[in-house]
Amino acid sequence: MKLIIAGKGGCGKSVISALLAKELAHRGYKVLVLDTDESNFGLHSQLGLEKPKDFMNYFGGKKVLLEKVKQLQGGWRVADLPREYLAEKGNIKLLAMGKIYDFGEGCACPINALSSKFLEVLELQEGEFLIADTDAGIEHLGRGVERGADMILAVVEPSLESLKLAGKIAEMAGEIDKPVYYVLNKVTNKTKDLLYRELDNAKAKVKIAAAIPYDERVFMRCLEGRELDFQVEGIKELADFLSSPQGSARTG
Asked: What is the C-alpha to C-alpha distance for residues 208 and 180, in angstroms, rounded to an integer?
């Protein structure tokens, strides 16, 4: 299953991506984590991995990337990915599309184009998951990155901006007939109840797949740049849903 993790900046997309990857890997699944966010440099540390080389350099770098992407054909498999561009540990592999490093370097359009095409041409095998951690907002939807995905998980934190953006993500995903589920993040009992009420009253009737409580350990580990090597409430339930026949059926 190919999963897109989307949401507003700071809502916890990378944390959810890392924790979910670890839980699925613990269950014996092989997980490819795809870092498509050109401005976030912390996902590898949350996974306990070294930062991999930018995959865009495999194609000659950003300047020629758009032309190279057009030539990408199907048949790519996780097992065939060039190892020099992967960070690996156990059942988890991390592949980073590319980053913006310098002033005046230009937009992230070529990186988004690579992410979009790669999701389309990658062929997963039985027992494999792809988790794509996206950049903040909805530009990736505008660039068509979600076209090759099976499901979108929209991460919602307790804020009005996050609620509104989640609704827009659901609306845009509906245009390409992609299933969307909400993952509530950093919630307390009070904010969880409020989010449930607001989402229940929203026009887009999207189901909530899981609710992840605020956890001080997560905050401190991210601040320190250390691995999230512990279980967090709600992630197990999310993995249960995704790995169940019911969850898989919703991607067909």
From this structure: 9
Identify the CA nearest to 38 among candidates 81, 100, 95.
100
| Structural domain count of the chain | 1
The distance of Cα 124 from the centroid of its chain, to the nearest Å, equals 16
- Summarised one tens digit per residue, pLDDT across range 57-98 is 998 887 788 788 877 888 899 998 999 999 999 999 999 998
Q: Where are the beta strands (DSSP E) in 12-58?
A: 30-35
Model pLDDT for residues 205-229, shown as the tens digit of each residue: 789 999 999 999 999 999 999 999 9
In a domain, 251, yes or no: no
Q: Are 16 and 228 in contact (CB under 8 A)?
A: no
**CA count, 13 A, side-chain hemisphere, 166:** 31
Inter-axis angle of helices 109-121 and 62-70, nearest 10: 30
167: in domain: yes
pTM listed for this prediction: 0.91
Please write the tens of the pLDDT for every residue from 140-189.
Answer: 777 767 888 999 999 999 999 999 999 888 888 888 889 999 999 999 99
Domain that holds residue 22: 2-244
- Of 149, 158, 156, 131, whose CA–CA distance to 7 is shortest? 156
CATH of the domain at 187: 3.40.50.300
Any domain includes 250 = no
Does the residue 16 lie in any domain? Answer: yes
